[in-house]
Amino acid sequence: MRIRKVNRQEVNEVTAVNKNHRMFEQVLHQFREYISSRNLAAGDKLMTEREMAAYLQVSRSSVREALRILEMFDVIYSKPGEGTILKTPHIPKILTTMLQFFTIPTETSIELLESRKVLEGGVAKLAAKRRKESDIRLLQNAVERMRSASDLQAQIQADLDFHLFLAKAAYNNTLSDILVLVSDLVTPNLYTTRLQTQEIAGVNDDFARQHQTILQAVIDKNGHRAAEEMERHIEHTIDLMKALNRFPAE
C-alpha cells in the first residue's frame, strides 16, 4: 500500500490544529496557576468543567481535553457524585514536567522518529521471518483496538502495544535490550505524535490501516515488505509532524 504525501489542504488543516494545541498548552499553564493559587492538594476537588471554563475564560472542549490528559497521567480522577479529585500533593512540579513534555522541540521529535524508522524497519523485517502464531494474535488484537478505540489514551496504548509486540516477535535479545534502552523515549514520542495529530480527520483510521499493512507483511513472512511498510508509516508520521509545525519539506 502506498502512503500518500501530505498535500497543501492538509497543511492548512493541521496548521489550524496546531493553533488548538497552543491553546491546550495555555490551559495547562492556567491549571497550574489555579492549583497553586488555591493551595490544592491530594484529595481536593476541582471546579466543575463549566466553572473551570468560565474561570479560565476558555472553551469547555479545551478544559475537557486538559482534564483527560491530566487523568491519563494519573494526576486526577473522577469520583461519581463528587466530581474531579486531585491525586497528588505535588501538582505544580508535575505540571511543570508535563509541560516540558508537551512542548518537546519538534526537531527532537522528528529526529527520534527518524531513529525509529531505521530501528523499527529492521525489527519488522526480523519479526516477519521469526514470528509465531501467538505473536500474530497479539499484533492483530492491537490493530483491532486501534480501530475501535474511542479515546486518545486507548489509541496510544494500542499503538504502543503493536510496536512492543512486534519487537518481541523479532526474537533477538540484543535488539530487545536496545529497545528497552530507548523505550523511555519511544513512549513519549508516540504520545507527542498522537496528541499533535489527533484532530486531523481520519488520522486514526490511517494509522490503523498502516499498521494492518505492516502486520499483513509479517503474516506473509515477507521481511522486505514489512520493513518497507514500517518505514513508510513512520515517514508519513514525519510528514504530518513537519506540516503541523510548518517545517519546510525536504
Automatic annotation (TrEMBL):
Xref: Gene3D superfamilies: GntR ligand-binding domain-like (1.20.120.530), Winged helix-like DNA-binding domain superfamily/Winged helix DNA-binding domain (1.10.10.10)
InterPro entries given in the database record: GntR_C, TF_FadR/GntR_C, Tscrpt_reg_HTH_GntR, WH-like_DNA-bd_sf, WH_DNA-bd_sf
Ranges annotated as spanning the membrane: none
Record carries keyword Transcription regulation: yes
PROSITE patterns on file: HTH_GNTR
Chain ranges of the HTH gntR-type domain: 21-89
An MF annotation (GO) of this entry: DNA-binding transcription factor activity
Keyword terms of this UniProt record: DNA-binding, Transcription, Transcription regulation
Signal peptide location: none
CDD domains, per the entry: WHTH_GntR (cd07377)
The keyword DNA-binding is annotated on this UniProt entry: yes
Name of the protein this chain belongs to: FCD domain-containing protein
Source species of the chain: Paenibacillus validus
